[in-house]
C-alpha cells in the first residue's frame, strides 16, 4: 500500500480518476457515517482495462481515498445510472480483486453500499452469481435503491452531490414505469428481497450488476 504520509505523484491513469471525480468523499449520512460517492458513468473502463488498470485503481484508492476515511465507519453510494459495460464498467473480477485487497480497517468500516438505479441485467446477474463472487460480508451490505427519493431516507440532501443526469433519469423512470427494470413502480410495490434492510421497504437488497 502507498504511504499516505507522503504525497506520491499520481500516475497518468490515477490522475484520470482524480480529474473525472469517479470517487469522492462527501459529508455524512443520517447515521453520521462518511459517504464515499462513486459515479459509475464517470469510470474510464477503456483506459483502465486489464491488470495495469486494475493496479492503477487500487493505487488511487490506497493513496487518495482510504487515508481520508481514516478507518472510521462509512457507506458507499454507487450511482449506476447510464453505465455501459464497454465504456464504464471495470468488470466483476476487478471489483472483487479491489474488495479483497482492502485494508482490514477499511473493510470493517464499510457499513453499507447503496446501489442507485440498478438495471435488470444487474439484478439478474447477482441473483445468479452474487453469492459466489463476493464474500458474505459484502453481499449482505449491498442495497438496491430504485429511486433517489428512497436514497434521501438515508442521506441528507445537502451532504452528497448527485449529477444532474441522474436526476433526469430518475424523473424519466417516474413517468415511464415500464422502464423500471421489469418491476412495477416503487410507488405501488416497496418490497425488498432480504430482511437485512436499514429502513423502509423502499429499496431492494442487492442481488445483482449491469
Describe the structure concisely.
With 210 residues, the chain is α/β, with parallel strands linked by helices. It has helices at 12-20, 50-69, 92-100, 104-109, 120-133, 136-139, 148-151, 164-175, and strands at 23-28, 34-39, 74-79, 110-116, 142-145, 203-205. The two termini are 30 Å apart.
Shape: globular
What's the gyration radius in Å?
17 Å
> Segments where pLDDT lies below 50 for 5+ residues?
1-6, 181-210
Class of secondary structure makeup: alpha/beta
What is the rounded distance between the termini?
Answer: 30 Å
Question: Percent range for helical residues?
Answer: 25-40%
Question: How much β-strand is present in the residues?
Answer: 15-25%
Key descriptive features of the protein:
210 residues; alpha/beta; 8 helices; globular; disordered C terminus
Can you offer a commentary on this structure?
The protein is of the alpha/beta class and 210 residues long. It is built from eight helices and six strands, in the order H-E-E-H-E-H-H-E-H-H-E-H-H-E. Helix 1 packs across helix 2. Residues 1-6 and 181-210 have low confidence and may be disordered. It is 37% helix and 15% strand. A hairpin with a 5-residue loop joins strand 1 and strand 2 (34-39).
